[in-house]
Amino acid sequence: MILWGPEYCTPVHVARRHGGAAVVSSYDPRAVVTLCRQIAGDSALNEKLAKEALCMHRTLFNPDRLQAIFVSEIEKLVMARANQ
68: number of CA atoms within 13 Å, CB side? Predict the structure, then answer.
């Protein structure tokens, strides 16, 4: 996965902290193309990024985990509203 965004955005912080994406923070779109070419030409980097992305899918961005958080937060809002 390639993430293109400014240094201050949350997804960039998450990717830098946990891996799972190659980050481009330059405003120049040519930087994205350059990174794509670098990844395509470097099988070790390609494999590393693929493994990190899979790990992120299984942990932080696990769909079941995210759904559980979403449902839990909605239930809290409903309960708080019902108790008003």
Answer: 6
How many CA atoms are closer than 13 Å to the CA of 70, on its beta-carbon side?
Answer: 7
Residue (of 32, 37, 38) closest to 3 by Cα position: 32
Q: Does position 34 have pLDDT exceeding 90, yes or no?
A: yes
Identify any residues that bridge with 23 across adjacent strands, giving them in sequence order. 3
Q: Counting every residue, how long is the chain?
A: 84
Six-digit token string for 29: 């779109």
What pLDDT is stored for residue 47 in this prediction?
Answer: 95
Rounded distance between C-alpha atoms, residue 64 and residue 54, angstroms: 15
CB atoms within 10 A of CB 22: 21
Q: Quick check: 24 and 2 in contact, CB under 8 A?
A: yes
Contact 20, 52 (CB under 8 A): yes
The pLDDT of residue 84 is: 86
Query: What are 78's two structure tokens?
Result: 């409903």
